[in-house]
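Lecture 7 notes: from sequence to structure.
We start with the chain below.
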Amino acid sequence: MAATATSADRGAAAQSDTTSQSDTGAASQSVAAPFPFKPTGRLDPDAINVLAAADAERTGEFMLKGPVTHLKQEIVGWQSAHQALHWTVIAPRNDDYAVTVLLGAKSRQPLTITVSSEGSSASTQFPVDPHGEERRTLLDEPLHLEAGRRTLTLDLQPATSDAPFEAEVLSVELTRSAVREALHREALAQRSDVRWMGHERLGLAFTWSKRTMPRFGPQRSYADAAAAFPVDRFAAEVASTGATFVVFSTAHSDQYIPGPNEALDGILPGRTARRDLIADLIAALGARHIKLFLYYHLGPIEDPAWSRATHMWDSDPSRFFHNWISIISEMGRRYGTGLAGWWFDDGLYNYYYRSPDWAALDRAAKAGNPGRAVCFNSWNGASATEFQDYYCGEETVPGGLNDVLNHDGSFNGSLRRDGDGRLERGEFAGLQSATMFALEGEWVHTRRDAAAATPRRSAASLAKTLEALHRYHVAPMVNLLIYQDGTIPEASLAVVRKAARIAGIPASTAASTPDQ
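Predicted structure tokens for the same chain:
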């Protein structure tokens, strides 16, 4: 589910961020782009330390994959062995760090990846890849860092010096080997068993937020709209499609929660609702045997009051994540087993570069229900963390949605028709597979006095997708537009109902006549 208007940033044209040449002809190092979050460079020997490519100084000409926002995406345009990225870090003591590089490269020859720092280096071979698939690549040996301020350099060298290649880089990770292994074990121990998701044939998602507009007339305040939301009618309409779970938005673009939350009130008053709409949705949907997931976004730059109140752009993110944990854990405890899952947006491009304590975030997300399903959206990039339970593809599944639709058997080594929907290969291995896509091509209705966009898929096309996903036990999440008054556009409902009938998905026996 696109987080905000900034989700369009992901597909926006890359912005040039080039270096200059000195009089001697040597390439100078450019100043990093002015992102709001500035890392301190201090390494934590007990954590995964992320060095974002967007924060690096650069030798040669590079481009930023997206605009300069709260999202830190890949550096693109790496086409020469003369280019390099550089970071300044502060090591607290002499130590060895395992080095992982997140990059994709289209090349006809292997590339040598090298990370070096003042006499120590680590390297490995990146295989030939005509598709440029982004992946985590662990270098063959650790990098030794002496205590103090050090410069790290990332180089890419083709097997033949003039061989063409094109690479994009998201980050370099530095982690002591013992810590890396311990975190892997901890992530697996915290992982919820969510194989039930592989049996869900239809889920619906709704981006109902502060910015959602009514069909006609003035927009109501968020709290008033939450108070008036017709939960029984909404739940009955969902049940009529055969959906067995719903993803409903909380904070999206602006930080608002449709229910009480003392933690949020203490951080920034006026952002909660008097009515506990979430509890009412759990009750109404639960009566129809429909599970509730919540969507949450940690907050982008469009809500400056929120970013100031939470210290979102502090170089030390500990206060910001303390606030996040207090809000999320309170919600988890309040709703208990009634809250089946979380869908956290921008996990890779917003959380990740802050090097969060993922174990603590995962524990907070599972407060009140240790079996709750948790994901941190990677869009179509690398995994943000092992501390999650399912892969929440946004308009994609591993290997590509078209592969699922057009391949009869196993594909890409990731999913098998006779499997249970858990991914079997790559850095997402072990996660339950799910995918979310927008039926109307838009995630949220934001136009005043205008009808919602009409479905882009026919019922037959949607049915084909649902049937294919079910063969691989991929949990489908179909985003439908919704008006501020809780009305789901009838054209969208009609397509989903018909698609479900074609795919053999029965409407809930608990569906009742919607309230008028």
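Points to note: Residues 52 and 171 are 4 Å apart (CA to CA). Residues 318-335 form the longest helix (18 residues).
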